## 1
Amino acid sequence: MFSKVNIEVGDNVKCFICDEIFFIERRFHELFSFKKLLICDKCYKKYPLKINVSVIPLNGVNVYFYSLFDKFFYINFNAFAVEYSMVFKSIRNNHKDNLILALDYIIINDFFIKMLSYFSLIEKKDIYIICYYIKN
């Protein structure tokens, strides 16, 4: 009459980088909370986040570059979407009146600097750029 219910405290998740299945443990107080992890501990240590902030003054405004990695990795960057969104939300909440660009990666060259120069002349606001990686 009653079916047997198997209760596990945790979730099985597939890593976005190495495709391994890993287990997210939950404690009683976080049993009904939503915990989003997209990457296993091994890959998180192999590809460490090193958030770097650079500032370039341009036409009377500042251009802030936030990058999550200091070098390029051939990985699925969506694995770090949770961290990326946390940085984005922090910047958005603290700098609502400024221009924010969210990109995967940036190649800084003359064309890109000229484009930012046009943005700064039109908007007359600081520009915040968030990306995974910056190539000079």
Note: Strands lie at 10-14, 21-25, 52-58, 61-67, 99-102, 105-107, 127-131, 133-135.
## 2
Amino acid sequence: MTKKKLIILASVAGILVLTIIIILIAGSCGRKQTVKADSAENLALLAKNAISANDYGAFQSLFTQGTREKVSQQSFGTFYQSITDDALYSNYVLMRLENGQMLLLYISGPDSQGLYHLQDVRAVSSESYDLFNH
């Protein structure tokens, strides 16, 4: 083969490789990543998305069977009216002590080492017990 033919062949091969790369990048950009309710954070994100979309059915689907009617459509409407782009997601864990007292732990993390830490602990007032007794 002549030098000219080799240059043309190399150019065509380069164009083919570049075309394949562009197709792969374009295909992956258009692909939707779905969020599943596989963590507390993802569940909160799904709830915010349902509220933002004013999708009461999607919001209800996040509840356990038998608790889907806990939030009425009217209450849901007030959430929709209050929604903004910014939302703060916090991790709280309820701890029930043997004597019946309840503590609400505010947890931060994970940090750069993958560890979680307590930010605050509050005793739950007896007036609020009904909220947590399920």
Note: The first helix runs from residue 3 to 29.
## 3
Amino acid sequence: MRKERRVYLRYEIELPVDIEMDEGNVSIKTVSKNISGGGIFVEVPVRPELFSQAILKIDFSNIGGGVKVIPAVVVHTLSKESVNEQRSEVGLVFDTNDNELRMEIDNCLRKAYPFERIKNKLKFFIKSLL
């Protein structure tokens, strides 16, 4: 069994996200599919290149936080064919050494979704039994 390497728990939550790519030449409005203190997974209309840079504006207002502006790097993409004809799924890792920002995001998510940690532990426990 592969050991989970994540430092921050993933939360399956939809938050508004503005993504600027290509040094501000491309602007995309979307919502998160899941997010953690380390990164975010979103659905976008076009598939960006791996390791391309982005600036994310994530709106945490509806769960007790404000808008966070975070640099990020594309580290995972699913092709249009594997999702559907119009959209691609993209994983971005936050490109910052600001651990306070990461902890602030994690704490905001943890307060809004207190049972998510238990749900994830149960999911991994059940997988280990199979």
Note: The chain has three helices and six strands.
## 4
Amino acid sequence: MTDIKTSCKYCIIPKEKITTDLYYSTISKWREYVEKGNLKFIGGDSSLEMLEVSIKREDKFAYNHYFECNCGNYLRSGFSIRSSVPILEKINQLPENIASETNNQTNSIKENTKLNGIEKLKLGLLGLLISFSIIYPIYRYVMNKSVTENGLKIKSLVVGKERLKNAKSAGYSYFLTLKYKQDDGVIQKTQIGVNKDEYLYCQKGDSVPIIYDINYSKNVKLNLE
């Protein structure tokens, strides 16, 4: 059992006799501390907001409520309909049912936070996929249009081939790495996606015709005729 810690200014129990008026004024002060984050309302026989109303309605014979101070102390307030002496005290530990309920709530919050994080990640990835599926066709159209209008026909050397099994990247599963010289003499090397027939036709070391975009030299397409 954990010893009760020295009280801080937020969990001091009044030294005078606990009257009904003092009980209610202390509860009001504790509620203010809860709102400011100095105390944590753990739970009890009613909500903290409806505490006074529930007691006055006499829905139960006794009402107990539990608080935890930031300094580590636990507080209990008690009010019995049949007793004129309310209770305000520090306790060593929470009752088993209250502690169990608190742990369940904490675990539930952690699990919900974890799930919310996963759901946000899924939504983020879905958003990226949707954006990509919309933007990429537009990008390909613009690039194809540019290479058609500004293209220069030259020869290139196939220096590499790659096939992605059971996957597609940007709509392609087959890729060729090409090496070529621009009209200004600069050597370029780039990888382009091709269809299966083009992939099988072009072999490493082959010289193949291409069209490259003079405005963007890595914008290349095969020119097999």
Note: The chain is about 40% helix and 30% strand.
